[in-house]
C-alpha cells in the first residue's frame, strides 16, 4: 500500500473528537433525543424539526383504541401499536418480526393471507378471528392499505376489535345504516311505481271524452302524485321517519296547480311556508292529500268567470305545538252546503283525513275561500 | 465539595430549538449541572437555533439540543438528552475534578 500522509497528533486528536461527536449525534438520533436538525442551506442554515410533524401522529396511533400495524406483504409485522399488542397478548417488542398470520385463528389464515396480498396490491378489508398467544380468540375487522413510498413496509393495517360492547354498537350502527339504505330504496321504488300509476291515469284522462269522468280521473292522478311526492322527498332526505312538511306541501300545491291550470291561466299560486318543521309520515301523507284537494278545488271552482287576478295561497307555520295550514283563494267562495258535511268526494276526503290525524278544520268567512287546518305535530314513532 | 481551580470562567452554550418541553428540560438539566459543579462561576448561553441560526452554523451544530463546552477548550459537544450518568463526561470537558470520579 502507499504511504499514509503523516498526521500531527493534534490533527489526530481533532479528528477523534469530531468522530466522537458524530457518534454522539448518531446515538442521539437513534434514541430519539434530538428534536431538530440544523442543515446548512445555500441561503443560510435551515432548521428541520424532527418530532414536530411526526410526534402528534405517533401519540394518536399509540393511544387509539384500534390496533395499528405496518406489515410486509407476507404479513411480517414491522411495527404495531400498544392496542394491537394487547389484542395479541404479547409485549410490543416481541411482535416485531412475527407474522400476523401466527396471530390469526388457524381457520382464518387462508382468508387473512388473501387479504394481505390484496392489501399489498391496493387495499382490502374483511373480518378475521384473532388468536392471542394464550389461545383466546376474538372477532376483528382488518383494513389493509398499500404504502406507496420508499419505506420498507408494504402496507399498513388497522384492526378493530369486535368483541367489546363498542363493537356491538358498531355492528348495530352498520346494520341500521344498511336498513336505512334498504328503506330508501323501497321509498324510491314506491315512488316510481306511483309515478307509473299517475302517468297511466293521465293517459286515461286524456282519452276519456266525458269531461266529468276525465276530471275525476285527473283528481285521482293528483292524489297519487301527492303520495309519490312523500316517497320521493323521503328517499332524498336524511331522515326516513320525518319529512319537512313545509317543503312537501309547497311541492304538492305547485304540482296540483300546474297540472290543473289551463295553459296561460292567470291564476297565481302564492305560498308562504316555514321550513324546518318535521312531522311524521302518516300526518304528512294526510296533509298532502288535504292540500291536494283544497288547491284543486280552488283551481277548478273559485274562478268560474274570470281568473284574472286570481290568487291561491298556501300558508304554513307553527302555532304553539300545532301546525297551522291555510289554503285560501280570492275567488267566488264555496256554496254553503260544503262545510256542513255535504259536498264532493274531495271535501269528504278532507274531512275524513282531518279526523284521522286529529286535526281541526275551519272555514273562514269570505270573500273567497279560506280553509284552515290545525294539526298536532306528531313526533317520532312514525310507522 | 467541588474543587474548581479555573483560571477562566467556564463558558457553555446550550443550543435548543424553540420553547418545546424538550428544550425546557435541557435548560433545566444544564442549569442543575452547572450549579452542582461550579455554583455561580460559569457562563451559560442558551441559544435558540430558530432565532440565531447563524450562531449554530458557526459552532457546527447539527442537532438540538446540543450542549457545547466552549471554555476551557478544546470545545466539546454533547448531543441529545443529558442524563446524570453523562455528567462526569461534561465535568471532564470542563476540567473539573469531581467527587463522582
UniProtKB/TrEMBL annotation, chain A:
<dbReference type="Pfam" id="PF02518">
    <property type="entry name" value="HATPase_c"/>
</dbReference>
<dbReference type="InterPro" id="IPR035965">
    <property type="entry name" value="PAS-like_dom_sf"/>
</dbReference>
<protein>
    <submittedName>
        <fullName>Histidine kinase</fullName>
    </submittedName>
</protein>
<keyword id="KW-0597">Phosphoprotein</keyword>
<dbReference type="InterPro" id="IPR013767">
    <property type="entry name" value="PAS_fold"/>
</dbReference>
<dbReference type="GO" id="GO:0016301">
    <property type="term" value="F:kinase activity"/>
</dbReference>
<dbReference type="Pfam" id="PF00989">
    <property type="entry name" value="PAS"/>
</dbReference>
<keyword id="KW-0067">ATP-binding</keyword>
<keyword id="KW-0808">Transferase</keyword>
<dbReference type="Pfam" id="PF07568">
    <property type="entry name" value="HisKA_2"/>
</dbReference>
<dbReference type="InterPro" id="IPR003594">
    <property type="entry name" value="HATPase_dom"/>
</dbReference>
<feature type="domain" description="Histidine kinase">
    <location>
        <begin position="185"/>
        <end position="379"/>
    </location>
</feature>
<keyword id="KW-0902">Two-component regulatory system</keyword>
<dbReference type="InterPro" id="IPR000014">
    <property type="entry name" value="PAS"/>
</dbReference>
<dbReference type="InterPro" id="IPR005467">
    <property type="entry name" value="His_kinase_dom"/>
</dbReference>
<keyword id="KW-0547">Nucleotide-binding</keyword>
<dbReference type="InterPro" id="IPR011495">
    <property type="entry name" value="Sig_transdc_His_kin_sub2_dim/P"/>
</dbReference>
<feature type="domain" description="PAS">
    <location>
        <begin position="53"/>
        <end position="109"/>
    </location>
</feature>
<dbReference type="GO" id="GO:0000160">
    <property type="term" value="P:phosphorelay signal transduction system"/>
</dbReference>
<dbReference type="GO" id="GO:0005524">
    <property type="term" value="F:ATP binding"/>
</dbReference>
<keyword id="KW-0418">Kinase</keyword>
<dbReference type="GO" id="GO:0006355">
    <property type="term" value="P:regulation of DNA-templated transcription"/>
</dbReference>
Automatic annotation (TrEMBL), chain B:
<dbReference type="GO" id="GO:0048511">
    <property type="term" value="P:rhythmic process"/>
</dbReference>
<dbReference type="InterPro" id="IPR036249">
    <property type="entry name" value="Thioredoxin-like_sf"/>
</dbReference>
<dbReference type="Pfam" id="PF07689">
    <property type="entry name" value="KaiB"/>
</dbReference>
<dbReference type="InterPro" id="IPR011649">
    <property type="entry name" value="KaiB_domain"/>
</dbReference>
<dbReference type="InterPro" id="IPR039022">
    <property type="entry name" value="KaiB-like"/>
</dbReference>
<protein>
    <submittedName>
        <fullName>Circadian clock protein KaiB</fullName>
    </submittedName>
</protein>
<feature type="domain" description="KaiB">
    <location>
        <begin position="13"/>
        <end position="90"/>
    </location>
</feature>
Amino acid at each position: 500500500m502507499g504511504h499514509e500522509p503523516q498526521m500531527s497528533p493534534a490533527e489526530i486528536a481533532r479528528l477523534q473528537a469530531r468522530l466522537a461527536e458524530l457518534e454522539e449525534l448518531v446515538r442521539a438520533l437513534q434514541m430519539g433525543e434530538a428534536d431538530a436538525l440544523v442543515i446548512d442551506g445555500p441561503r443560510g442554515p435551515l432548521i428541520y424539526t424532527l418530532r414536530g410533524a411526526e410526534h402528534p401522529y405517533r401519540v394518536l396511533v399509540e393511544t387509539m383504541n384500534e390496533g395499528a400495524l405496518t406489515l410486509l406483504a407476507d404479513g411480517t409485522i414491522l411495527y404495531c401499536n400498544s392496542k394491537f399488542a394487547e389484542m395479541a397478548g404479547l409485549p410490543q417488542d416481541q411482535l416485531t418480526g412475527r407474522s400476523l398470520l401466527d396471530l390469526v385463528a388457524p381457520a382464518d389464515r387462508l382468508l387473512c393471507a388473501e387479504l394481505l396480498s390484496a392489501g399489498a396490491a391496493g387495499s382490502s378489508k374483511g373480518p378475521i378471528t384473532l388468536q392471542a398467544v394464550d389461545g383466546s380468540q376474538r372477532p376483528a375487522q382488518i383494513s389493509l392499505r398499500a404504502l406507496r413510498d420508499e419505506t420498507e413496509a408494504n402496507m399498513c393495517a388497522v384492526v378493530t376489535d369486535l368483541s367489546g360492547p363498542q363493537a356491538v354498537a358498531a355492528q348495530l350502527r352498520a346494520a341500521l345504516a344498511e336498513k336505512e339504505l334498504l328503506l330508501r330504496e323501497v321509498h324510491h321504488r314506491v315512488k316510481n311505481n306511483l309515478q307509473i300509476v299517475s302517468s297511466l291515469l293521465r293517459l286515461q284522462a286524456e282519452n276519456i271524452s266525458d269531461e266529468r269522468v276525465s276530471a275525476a280521473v285527473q283528481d285521482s292522478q293528483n292524489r297519487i302524485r301527492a303520495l309519490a311526492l312523500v316517497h320521493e322527498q323521503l328517499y332524498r332526505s336524511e331522515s326516513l321517519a320525518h319529512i319537512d312538511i313545509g317543503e312537501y306541501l309547497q311541492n304538492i300545491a305547485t304540482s296540483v296547480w300546474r297540472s290543473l291550470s289551463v295553459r296561460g291561466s292567470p291564476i297565481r299560486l302564492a305560498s308562504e311556508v316555514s321550513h324546518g318543521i318535521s312531522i311524521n309520515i302518516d300526518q304528512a301523507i294526510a296533509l298532502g292529500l288535504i292540500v291536494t284537494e283544497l288547491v284543486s278545488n280552488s283551481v277548478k271552482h273559485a274562478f268560474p268567470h274570470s281568473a284574472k287576478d286570481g290568487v291561491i295561497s298556501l300558508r304554513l307555520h307553527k302555532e304553539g305545538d300545532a301546525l297551522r295550514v291555510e289554503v285560501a283563494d280570492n275567488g267566488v267562495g264555496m256554496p254553503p252546503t260544503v262545510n256542513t258535511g255535504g259536498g264532493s268526494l274531495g271535501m269528504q276526503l278532507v274531512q275524513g283525513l282531518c279526523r284521522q290525524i286529529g286535526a281541526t278544520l275551519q272555514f273562514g268567512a269570505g270573500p273567497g275561500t279560506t280553509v284552515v287546518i290545525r294539526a298536532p305535530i306528531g313526533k317520532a314513532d312514525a310507522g | 465539595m467541588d474543587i474548581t481551580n479555573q483560571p477562566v470562567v467556564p463558558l457553555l452554550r446550550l443550543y435548543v430549538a424553540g420553547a418545546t418541553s424538550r428544550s425546557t428540560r435541557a435548560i433545566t438539566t444544564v442549569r442543575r449541572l452547572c450549579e452542582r459543579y461550579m455554583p455561580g462561576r460559569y457562563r451559560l448561553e442558551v441559544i435558540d437555533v430558530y432565532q440565531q441560526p447563524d450562531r449554530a452554523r458557526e459552532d457546527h451544530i447539527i442537532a438540538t439540543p446540543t450542549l457545547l463546552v466552549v471554555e476551557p477548550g478544546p470545545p466539546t459537544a454533547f448531543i441529545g438528552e443529558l442524563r446524570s450518568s453523562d455528567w462526569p463526561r461534561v465535568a471532564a470537558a470542563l476540567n473539573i475534578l469531581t467527587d463522582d470520579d
